[in-house]
Write a structure and sequence with these properties.
Blueprint lengths: L1 H6 L11 H25 L6 H27 L4
Helix pairs in contact: 2-3
Length: 80
Amino acid sequence: MDTIKKVWPTAFKVEEKNVSSLVVQLIVLIVVCAVVGLLIGLLAKIPILGLIFSIIGSLLELYGLIGIVLCVLKFLGIVK
């Protein structure tokens, strides 16, 4: 569990049963994913480097999705 806390530190800032901390972290993760997604979408159109940027974009979006899931689980008290 310590490794997960080191990789996704923002997800563990959510306090159990505190809606405002959940909403703040969700907005942060969604905005970051949207901005990175747009940037990677533009860079993915470069012919040779497009594949690399597509893979990086997919990994960053997966990171954001896992962060959102961890935020919700922390809010519900399932993850300590």
